[in-house]
Amino acid sequence: MTLNRRFFLGFIRIHILHQASQGEIYGVQMIKELENHGYQVSPGTMYPILHALEREGFLKSRRENVQGKIRKYYKITGKGQKILTESRQKVGELTRELMV
After folding, report:
1. What digits encode the pLDDT tens for the residues 25-60?
2. What single string gives the DSSP state of each residue in the chain?
3. Which residue range forms the structural domain that includes residue 37?
4. Taking burial as the number of CB atoms within 10 A of a residue's CB, which of 3, 27, 97, 98 is the most buried?
5. Number of domains making up the chain
6. pLDDT class for 16, splitting at 50, 70, 90?
């Protein structure tokens, strides 16, 4: 994993939580969403992040059959919403400091 990728993984995790707070998400959707913001995230990176966020209790999932394939949809949990709120505050503080 490159230095840039490791550096931005925290931002990616926050972005995933943000999107999951807006409604259900799934892996390919998030890969495309992040591409729109200049991130190149492979399935080999995205799915372990989603699984870890679920294991850590920040997301919960449900499975649905979509055109013969099982798709896993994720939504934010109360714990995820709490860490997202804290992250927004920290990112806001950091942004204000960096932009001075």
Report:
1. 999 999 999 999 988 899 999 999 999 999 999 999
2. --HHHHHHHHHHHHHHHHHHHHS-B-HHHHHHHHHTTT----HHHHHHHHHHHHHTTSEEEEEEEETTEEEEEEEE-HHHHHHHHHHHHHHHHHHHHHT-
3. 3-99
4. 27
5. 1
6. very high
